[in-house]
Write a structure and sequence with these properties.
This protein is 45% helix and 5% strand. With 348 residues, it is mostly helical. Strands 1-2 form a two-stranded antiparallel ribbon.
Length: 348
């Protein structure tokens, strides 16, 4: 395959259009960078939902926290796969603009918004992002999310299937350079570690973890730790009931799940905030600088010039900075407009 140039906004769709017999090392590196972009893009979306929960605890908060940690795991595994074959993950400058599409052209029907936790946000955005490759094994009480992927466009799962097929076909040399190991101790699962990628078996294991934690399998809503995949955990929140087996069939018929009190973060408007009071802008800038510092730390860690611990330290500063913003009304004279929220804009 000749060296090709892929448009950023449609990269994954264009990569998926390349015939499988033409996959090569360049295709793999481009695809893994697109996977890094994709995993990174989900984090601000889910973090806004988690941070908007006022209590900072409870079943829904814990669900969101586990999903976010698993998304960080997926990001780390994608970075390790890329560095393992001589690539360098680009992290510190690849946050998309919200509202907007997912990177690479995955599910172009979906507009990803940053907003507080609501049933609409869970249904229209979270469940659409995690929509399973072959559709959900467990039907929802109501129809599938209106922004579910069209059959003509790849799901995240299909994209990872293509990456695995390319690894198996190309059989690249594994350099072993800049491989990181990170364990997320607050997860209750056993598969919670970003592990080094040294061979094709490691690649297959990494992709299985990413796919099963996100969407389950073609026959079960469970991942390899017997926990529900992200799609079904979000569907539990939306249906208001836990997913349980009834007469051998999975149904949303268990105990009640209620969205707790949240700060009413209004969706970030197209083009971002305008005419922001100076004190609010100062809070937004403080958050965005800390977020940029975390991304720079991740970039340095996978470049071999920094420590992952530094990036994790920056990460711990973000919730407090975000919740300061989340408590500020857009208009104190009109509370129905909702509150500000972290906008994840990288400093220029």
């Amino acid at each position: 395959m000749d060296k090709r140039t892929y448009s950023k906004n449609n990269k994954i769709v264009e990569l998926m259009q390349v015939p499988a017999e033409q996959y090569n090392l360049a295709w793999l590196q481009e695809s893994l960078q697109a996977a890094v972009d994709l995993e990174l893009a989900t984090l601000p979306v889910y973090l806004c939902g988690q941070w908007s929960i006022q209590s900072g605890s409870g079943p829904v908060y814990d669900q969101m926290n586990n999903i976010i940690l698993e998304e960080m795991l997926h990001l780390g595994l994608a970075c390790n796969m890329l560095t393992a074959i001589g690539g360098t993950p680009q992290i510190s400058s690849n946050i998309p603009t919200y509202p907007g599409p997912l990177p690479g052209g995955v599910n172009p029907n979906l507009t990803v918004t940053l907003a507080g936790l609501t049933l609409d946000q869970v249904y229209d955005v979270y469940m659409a992002i995690e929509y399973p490759e072959n559709g959900p094994v467990v039907p929802n009480t109501n129809p599938a999310p209106k922004q579910a992927p069209a059959p003509s466009h790849p799901t995240i799962g299909e994209f990872y299937d293509a990456i695995l097929a390319a690894f198996q076909q190309v059989n690249p040399t594994f350099t072993g350079q800049h491989q990181l190991t990170v364990t997320f101790n607050s997860l209750n699962q056993t598969h919670n570690e970003v592990f080094p990628i040294n061979n094709l078996t490691d690649v297959q294991n990494a992709i299985e973890v990413i796919k099963e934690q996100g969407e389950g399998t073609s026959t079960s809503p469970l991942d390899e730790d017997a926990d529900f995949a992200h799609y079904y955990r979000f569907a539990e929140i939306w249906n208001g009931k836990m997913l349980v087996q009834v007469s051998g069939q999975w149904q949303y018929a268990g105990g009640a799940i209620t969205i707790p009190d949240v700060y009413p973060m209004a969706p970030i408007p197209a083009g971002g905030y305008t005419n922001v009071p100076a004190n609010v802008q100062s809070d937004l800038d403080a958050f965005n600088q800390a977020f940029a510092g975390m991304l720079d730390g991740l970039q340095a860690a996978w470049n071999g010039t920094g420590s992952i611990d530094s990036a994790i330290g920056q990460m711990f500063s973000l919730p407090g900075l975000a919740q300061t913003i989340l408590q500020i009304p857009l208009d104190s004279n009109n509370p129905s407009l909702g509150n500000y929220g972290p906008n994840f804009v990288l400093p220029s």
